[in-house]
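Readers of this paper often ask what the protein records in our data store actually look like. The remainder of this section carries one protein's record, kept here as part of the documentation.

:::
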Amino acid sequence: MAGRTVRNRRIPSRTVYAAAVAACATLALAACGSTKDDVASGGGKGDGGGKVGVILPLLTSPFWQSYNDYVPKMATSEGVDALKTVNSNSDPSQQITDINNQLNQGVKGLVVAPLDSAAIAAGLDQAERKGVPVVAVDVAPEKGKVAMVVRADNVAYGEKACQYLGKQIGSGKVVQIMGDLASVNGRDRSEAFRACVRRNFPKLKVLEIPAKWESDTAASKLDTLLNANPDIKGIYMQAGGVYLAPTLQTLKSKGMLKKAGAAGHITIVSNDGIPQEFDAIRKGEIDATVSQPADAYAKYGMYYIKAAMQGKTFKPGPTDHDSEIVKLPGGILEDQLPAPLVTKENVDDPGLWGNTVE
C-alpha cells in the first residue's frame, strides 16, 4: 500500500535477517513461516499436489497485467500446478461464479484477488465446503476462511501519500481519487489519507472523487472538480494502473499539466509502481508513487497456497522475506509485504519490479 527503507525486490530475498531469527527463536514451530497442521486455520492435509485455480479481479490495469504475467513464472518456481488465470472483469458476481467453476473442475487450491471484501465470502464458503484452501491476494475479505492474505499495508499507502503531499504543498486544496469503497483497500487508503491530513496538515483541504477503480469515472469527475476548483495543488491517485492516464489527459486538456519545478505544477502521488508511473516521474509529470509488489504478490500467493494444500499454517511474526505476518480482525492472517515510496531520487532502482518488466 513514508518511505520504508526496505526495497521491493523483484523476487524478495529469502535470507533470514538477524532480527527475524531472534524473533522466530522465541516462537512455536508454527510461527515465522514454519508449519503446523491445523485444519481450523485453513490448511488442507495433502502433499501439496493438484491443480490450483488463479482468479484475477480485472485485466484493464497495467498492474494486474503484470501480476498476470508473473503468475505462471512464480507458479513454476514454487512448484505449483496452476491453471490458466481467470479474469472476473471487475464484476464481483462473476468472481463468485468463477470460483464455483474452478471448484467444479476439481482444483485443490485457489488464489483469488477479491473485488469486493464482503461479497467474496460467498465464494470462500463454497471453497470451505469442498475442503479447498484459499489464499487471498491484494484484498482481505471481511469474513470467510482463507489460509493467508498476501497484501501490502494499504493504510501505509494513504499515510505515505499524505506525508508527501503535505510536506511538498503545506496548504491548499488536494484531491484524492479513491478506489472502490466496497474494497478494504479503497477504505484503508481513503481513511488513512484523511486521518493523516487532519492530524498533520490542517491547512490542507481534501476534496474527494469516488471512482470505483474506473478510469472513465475518474476522468469525468476530475474534469468537473477542476472546473469548480482550478486552484488544486495536489492529487492522490489510489491506483495508477487505472487513474494515471485519465488524470494526466484531463490535466493536459485543461492546460494544467506542468512539469515538476515549473510554476503551476500540481503535485501528484500515486499507488502501484507500474512502469508508466516511473516514466511519468522521470518526465516530471507526477512526483511519487508507492510500489505495490506485483511480483511478490504472485510469488507468495503461490508459496502460501502450496503450504496450505500441504496442511501447513502460520502464526504472526516476522518472515524470512522482509515482511511480517499480522492477525486481522476475525483471526485472518495477512503477510504484509514491503511497498516503498518511489520518487525521482530512487525511480531508477533496479530492485523495483516496475524496472524489471519486459
Q: What stands out?
A: Residues 113 and 137 are 5 Å apart (CA to CA). Residues 62-78 form the longest helix (17 residues).
